[in-house]
Design goal:
It is a single chain. By secondary structure, the protein is an alpha+beta fold. The protein has a domain of 81 residues: 2-Layer Sandwich (Translation Initiation Factor IF3), CATH 3.30.110.70. The protein is built from 3 helices and 7 strands; from the N terminus they run H-H-E-E-E-E-E-H-E-E. The longest helix is centred in the last third of the chain and has 14 residues.
């Protein structure tokens, strides 16, 4: 009898009354247009440079969006929105174009006229951030 009670209690605890809602498909599409930089004579590629060049150094940027107090209407325009102390707080959204422009500016500041092995990664989590890497070259 005792075992039957334990089994019944276990079944009651393990079975859930919560409903399951499957996640909808999500597609994130990013197109980074290198053409404006290429037309200025600056070379960008996710691959190594095919010709001869001087390697100036490796560029690594960690970009952490700022957090700010926002109003209820603006919630959809921010990432990782939280509500505390009767106020909404959200992390600013940073576009991939802004990250690209920042990387090119930093590379040009080193005297580079190219950025190869270029990559942008978004690291999701409680506080999302971006890692931008590449190798600065002089052709």
């Amino acid at each position: 009898m005792r075992n039957a009670c334990i089994v019944a209690l276990a079944c009651a605890l393990l079975s859930s009354c919560a409903s399951f809602t499957p996640a909808s498909r999500s597609v994130v599409s990013v197109f980074l247009d290198y053409r404006p930089y290429m037309s200025e004579g600056f070379f960008i590629s996710p691959d190594p440079y095919p010709g001869s060049c001087e390697t100036l150094g490796e560029l690594a940027l960690e970009v952490r969006p700022g957090q700010m107090e926002i109003d209820e209407v603006s919630v959809a325009f921010f990432d990782s929105v939280t509500y505390r102390n009767n106020k909404y707080y959200g992390y600013e959204r940073i576009s991939y174009e802004t990250l690209l422009d920042t990387a090119v500016s930093k590379a040009k500041a080193t005297g580079a006229d190219g950025l190869v092995n270029f990559s942008i990664q978004k690291v999701d989590g409680l506080h999302p951030y971006y890692i931008v890497t590449g190798v600065c070259i002089k052709r």
